[in-house]
Amino acid sequence: MRFVMGKSAGIARAFRSVMAAVVVAATVLLAGLAPAGAVTITVDFENLPSLPAQPNNFAAAGAMETFTMAGVFSITGGVVLGNPTFLASFPAHGSAPNLYGTADFADPSLLSTIELDMPAAAETTSVSLVLFNGQPIAETYEVDFFSGATPICAATFASVPASTSSSSFATPSCSSTLVLPITKVLITTPDAALNGWDFFVDTIVLTQNPVTAVPEPASLVLVASGAVVLGYLDWRRRKR
Length: 240
Prior knowledge:
The chain is of the alpha+beta class. It has two domains: 2-34 and 214-239; 39-208, Sandwich (Jelly Rolls). It has five helices and twelve strands. The protein has helices spanning 2-33, 58-61, 90-93, 192-195, 217-239, and strands at residues 39-43, 65-69, 73-82, 98-103, 113-117, 124-133, 139-147, 150-160, 169-170, 173-175, 184-188, 198-208. A hairpin with a 2-residue loop joins strand 7 and strand 8. The longest helix is centred in the first third of the chain and has 32 residues, at 2-33. It is globular.
């Protein structure tokens, strides 16, 4: 009887040890599956992307530049200028020295629309930015936010003051949910065919949620191994 009790106690201890290991493994696995907290990313064209002061005119800036940070964002349609003396509102409302812009009189590769894209996996739930009118006249701008092909927000800024005004800017923003993350922002002017275009964006702030992690194979093997051992110990206990 003492021998049987001793063996049973040993099996019980082994059972508890394996159970504890499985609990730890499951905790680690679940931690890997849980999404991390939201992060804020600022695209300012000095630190992200990391750039020195750029030319202060379109002629020197040259052809269209597309900037991409894999898994986070991509922006295309314009070029980066630095220290723009022709934008009276930039010193107070931009992040010096650089900003991203486009104009109809610049390199032919520049577009009348600046496009900002975020992958769906980035789970972007909010976007805000500063939009500067580079025209010597008041101009109207449209900013549209999408989740895939679904419109999320649309804003029209009528008669944004001329570039010589300290009020020659607008601050578009949009918030959404993880169900409909923001994946595209289009910035343009409806008067491009009439007046041409000349505008800039800066200090683009993205709120994103990291993708839910996929468990590593080693973690899955660890949990599966624990389940097999538990099954074996239970069979041994019942047999005795």
